[in-house]
């Protein structure tokens, strides 16, 4: 998002919006209608209030009644009231990355709503590879959001999820994303959005927002920050990496909003780029919704990037490019003058408003009483329910990844109530477990952000409650607790000897180490990949002294170079918990003691530290370059050594899978004029736009057998390699994934459909997506299958 940091801006600009913001009530209680109040005879009968009219007509009616000044006052996140038409002010900025949060000024905790269910950070939830879980979380979050809206303490427009690719392991916001693979990120985005927005046709439960469009994944590295970064991106990388999740969000998730980012892409600020916004997002992908700026993006490209010479030009450029709503005051201040100077037509402003009003109508905001609408019955009793909190716990159990299990050392025995030494800077943490976008991490930026969001950072706890690792382990064992390091920075070894003593006395040792928001956060990229300070030394010393097995548990958003622990025989097992959410400690304990079987898989590559030696964060290229010694990024393009690879993750049981059936030849039908000649088949790769793509898929049936004595879930990751790698194609690409639960000693058959045009295609250097004809090799774990793609009109079998 929306920046949790605001640049300092001239103070006067903020006074007007702040006054308007105070109109927006603070008290919790039944919400008054936003507009079209049935009790208000003067305004309730306008055509724009008529539920029976088509939305478009209602929007046109309302737009026709507004003056230019009124229209302009609606172009910003804290939209002004239009009292004469019975319309109240509205704060558009709310956030729900992994639970309703108070990061945006549209949501406030307190009174009947002291907190909300805080799910694991997204990188952890992504590791579950369970799309139905992602959607289920979205449903719960939107129940709580609607309940809080009805109670007058939250909005209906949520600027989540973050679907940027986790391109560089140092990125401070990588934790907010579903990882490094475009298909996983896009599937997560579309699933979470559908959960949030509901399945009621055109009507929206809440409006989600996929951000930050695009090629935005640098916060502050080596003196370069996101406000001044010009991402130089090739057409090829845009098409086969950066755009993929956004396209899936819009086309498959039907998201109601897209946010443009702070940075420039190839010299143009994304929020001023008509090719990105008007042409691609709205034109090609057909966004039905609004495009919003990241907070003060327009001000940033005027003041900081000096992209235009006057503020009116900056405002005009944004709206003409396709921006509909400004987070920040810039458009409210400068748009009227832009129109007066002829830089912009009032019709352009109408177009922007049509998109925001359309979403408000679909949310029911012009339908009168909130209580008589769908979800009108939700209230305080529906927030932090036992079922919601159970799902947060379940999400953590599904997301935790077992990286190593020598012996095996895990699960720990529950018999004879063992004594466990619980050691490390993250061993008894609470809000560290929820990562960012939950309130607390903002305090550092409070000074800046308070101008646009006065209440940010004032709440330190927004979860329903917490279970720390120490508390979780305490449910299974007697514990001896030692911090070992005062905090994750671990500057001294002062507490080491007490920790070593504890490990000597216990039946088993659990070390909980890693990172927190002081190491990786918004506006804070990491310098390296090793454990901070002297944590590594703590781990090795404690492991050497432990009487029983030593288990290492890591909390982090980004990957850690754990080479030392992977190879240390005294460290029996390693778990990565990401940031596991409000009950993360309970989930960790359930896995340690085997009441839950781990099934998570890494959604990003874990690189060794020296991967960074020739890898400026500012180099956007995904593909490696031998001549420049550039290693390339993510499992799709990087071939060098790794600590743990994308998709790695063990189980307490043993699964095998075999192919039950799969086609060996698939015919690709072409559209009429392309099917008649050979002109488009040159180079043995046809353009995706020339193929009849609908329902064109490769169906693979797999049998999954659980050979062990414990129930568990197995994730099938299907990778493909095209016939000709060349400079076009990734070395391999995830084309489908499916998670399946299989009881001990049972077997299940799973069908996986691989969409030919979407995922078996590759992108050429000009950014054109093509399907290579010939043998595509599919890899699923250790099994391989070849499928030959052939053009249907050349006389091969029609599928
Ligand atoms: C662990 O954290 C909880 C909650 O913050 C606190 O009440 C408790 O005293 C801590 N326990 C230890 C042993 O430090
Ligand atoms: C297309 O190419 C194939 C093989 O190169 C050839 O046999 C065939 O006659 C061509 N078809 C047409 C319509 O040109
Ligand atoms: C996916 O998550 C849902 C919701 O928690 C759960 O019911 C289901 O069993 C999970 N699927 C697998 C295969 O574990």
Notes on the structure:
With 799 residues, the protein is of the alpha/beta class. It has 22 helices and 27 strands. The protein folds into three domains: 374 residues, Glycoside hydrolase, family 3, N-terminal domain (TIM Barrel, Alpha-Beta Barrel), CATH 3.20.20.300; 167 residues, 3-Layer(aba) Sandwich (Rossmann fold), CATH 3.40.50; 137 residues, Immunoglobulins (Immunoglobulin-like), CATH 2.60.40. A six-stranded mixed β-sheet has the order 11-16-15-14-12-13. The N terminus and C terminus are likely disordered. It binds 2-acetamido-2-deoxy-beta-D-glucopyranose (3 copies). One 2-acetamido-2-deoxy-beta-D-glucopyranose binds next to loops. The site of one 2-acetamido-2-deoxy-beta-D-glucopyranose has 2 residues, from loops.
What secondary-structure arrangement, pairings included, does this model have?
Blueprint: H1 12-23, H2 55-65, H3 68-73, E1 78-79, E2 90-91, H4 122-126, H5 131-150, H6 182-197, E3 210-213, E4 220-221, E5 224-225, E6 230-231, H7 235-251, E7 257-260, E8 264-265, E9 268-269, H8 275-284, E10 290-293, H9 297-303, H10 311-321, H11 330-340, H12 346-362, H13 386-399, E11 401-405, E12 419-423, H14 446-449, H15 469-474, E13 478-482, H16 496-505, E14 508-514, H17 535-545, E15 550-555, H18 563-566, E16 571-576, H19 584-592, H20 634-637, E17 655-661, E18 665-668, H21 672-675, E19 685-687, E20 697-706, E21 712-721, E22 733-742, E23 747-755, H22 756-759, E24 762-763, E25 769-772, E26 774-780, E27 783-791
Parallel strand pairs: 3-7, 6-8, 7-10, 12-13, 12-14, 14-15, 15-16, 18-27
Antiparallel strand pairs: 1-2, 4-5, 8-9, 11-16, 17-20, 19-25, 20-23, 21-22, 21-26, 24-25, 26-27
Helix pairs in contact: 2-12, 5-6, 5-13, 6-7, 9-10, 10-11, 13-19, 16-17
